[in-house]
Design goal:
heterodimer; A: 269 residues; alpha/beta; Rossmann fold; four-stranded antiparallel beta sheet; 43% helix; B: 248 residues; 10 strands; ABC transporter ATP-binding protein (chain A); membrane (chain A); ATP-binding (chain A)
Chain lengths: 269, 248
């Protein structure tokens, strides 16, 4: 079966500097994979490359096949068709991902309307509004009517991230990319958002590319991981195998560090 | 011996927004304390009060038996010598136009501490594990972890009794964070550390005592091991359950 996303020999350069080097991985429909790396590892750039949203100064080479469509070197108009239907992204900072001047309901209605148009439907406004409320309810936001009628600054950080997830889900994409979606959130809110993402992705059968520097967070939502360092993949495999028996020295350092904080919490250090 | 005594401290912005509600705790000499809470818990406000950057609206803070009074220049000069701080972001807490030598010796100069500053700077650099030739370089020549080492060297150069650290490892990558936590652990053998953090794992690694804050109230405090092993307050329990763990 052809994978939903197939990244082959991806190299990203700006001027003489190589940011991502010869990266290859693939993701089947409904699969969940984590891209782990520290700052400068190229994990977010890889996500941007998959969605065709790289800054003009960064030149991609190699191949990214998403839902049967080549992304590298493809016209913006073609890529626009892929965004939403094939892929949607949840970014790290929900405050900057949302338009501060637009009410939440209108913001969620945007991608929802595009998806409905794509499906050849043109429902009346009232029906779109009802579906917006359903999506807000789906991401466990209390009082969806009040939230829909609020501006981003009027709701909490966790609620804003739920709205960003609702917008991505409204597209019904085949692949959801979550780029550090809980890094800006408090730990109790993070736990709730991870649980929500996990259950929604399972329920809707989407593939998930989860990008994070936080090993235990990644382990809660994905089955496979690729570890990036300075733009190169140093190790990949099932979460349990990579975290239990890391082969590369860099992965070993990360796993040992994460385990040492766990051990300190449990009093086994 | 009690180094710092915080008694019934309140702080608010007018009557409408009360940030701290009668907070009391003591910091004993040589016993590192972790202040843990989520956004809006008041942990940074407590740190600002402890630094003398702002005054409590109620209650008192005593240091070494004297009331912390930010308006007393004499008291604050002695206090700054005894209490130093390390902040979260090593990219904004170091002056980009100063060489490392000047950054680290700044407390010695502004506090008019007599003696050979060059030797004190070299000893501080050595204590934080940076090479001696770092003194002639600028902050931008260093990585995030190395910059945080410079900030720590600046905090310890005047040999303070107490170091206040505000989320001092939160902005660092995991592999760097573990090394800076180790550095703090080593340094805390010779000084007292108040470590403000949202990260329970880091506090568990570093601090003998822990204070859990929720919306300006201390909900639980005491020995870190005992609290983590058997949290009594529902909020502490929720906090502990929410921390993601590595798969076993």
């Amino acid at each position: 079966m052809t994978p939903l996303l197939s990244v082959d020999g991806l190299t990203l350069k700006t001027g003489d500097k190589t940011l991502v080097s010869d990266l290859s991985f693939s993701l089947g429909a409904g699969e969940r994979m984590g891209l782990i790396g520290e700052s400068g590892s190229g994990k977010s750039l890889t996500a941007m490359a998959v969605t065709g949203l790289l800054p003009k100064s960064i030149v991609p080479a190699g191949s990214i096949l998403l839902d049967g469509q080549q992304v590298v070197g493809t016209l913006e108009r073609t890529l626009n068709g892929l965004r939403g239907s094939s892929v949607a992204v949840v970014f790290q900072e929900p405050l900057t991902a949302l338009d501060p001047l637009m009410k939440i309901g209108t913001q969620v209605a945007g991608p929802l309307g595009r998806r409905l148009a794509r499906e050849g439907k043109s429902p009346p406004r009232r029906e779109v509004d009802r579906e917006v409320l359903q999506f807000l309810d789906h991401v466990a936001l209390p009082q969806p009517e009040r939230i829909a009628n609020s501006y981003p600054h009027e709701i909490s950080g966790g609620q804003r991230q739920r709205v960003a997830i609702a917008m991505a889900l409204a597209c019904k994409p085949k692949l959801l990319i979550a780029d550090e979606p809980t890094t800006a959130l408090d730990v109790t809110t993070q736990a709730e958002i991870l649980k929500l993402l996990d259950s929604l992705v399972r329920e809707l059968g989407m593939a998930l590319l989860f990008i994070s520097h936080d090993l235990p967070v990644v382990a809660t939502v994905v089955d496979r991981v690729t570890v990036l360092r300075n733009g190169r993949a140093v190790e990949e495999g099932p979460v349990k195998a990579v975290f239990d028996q890391p082969r590369h020295d860099y992965t070993k350092t990360l796993v040992e560090a994460a385990r040492s904080f766990d051990n300190a919490l449990e009093g086994t250090a | 011996m009690t180094l710092l005594d915080v008694r019934d401290v309140t702080f608010g912005y007018g009557r409408q927004r009360q940030v701290l509600h009668g907070v009391s705790f003591a910091v004993k000499k040589g016993v590192s304390v972790g202040l843990v809470g989520e956004s809006g818990s008041g942990k940074t406000t407590i740190l600002r009060l402890l630094l003398g950057l702002t005054k409590p609206t109620g209650g008192t803070i005593n240091f070494g038996g004297s009331v912390l009074d930010p308006s007393s220049r004499g008291f604050m000069r002695d206090y700054r010598r005894s209490v130093q701080a390390v902040f979260q972001d090593p990219y904004s807490s170091l002056d980009p136009r100063q060489k490392v030598r000047d950054i680290i010796s700044e407390p010695l100069q502004s506090l008019r501490i007599p003696g050979a500053h060059g030797e004190a700077v070299a000893a501080a650099l050595d204590a934080v594990g940076l090479p001696a030739d770092a003194i002639n370089r600028y902050p931008h020549e260093f990585s995030g972890g190395q910059r945080q080492r410079i900030a720590i060297a600046r905090a310890i150069v005047a040999r303070p009794q107490l170091v206040l650290a505000d989320e001092a490892v939160s902005a660092l990558d995991l592999s760097t964070r573990i090394r800076i936590v180790d550095l703090f652990k080593r340094l805390s053998e010779n000084m007292t550390l108040v470590f403000v953090s949202h990260d329970l794992g880091v506090v568990a690694s570093l601090c003998e005592e822990i204070i859990i804050l929720e919306r300006g109230h201390i909900v639980e405090s005491g020995n870190t091991r005992e609290i983590l092993d058997a949290p009594q307050h529902p909020y502490t329990q929720k906090l502990l359950q929410s921390v993601p763990r590595m798969p076993r």
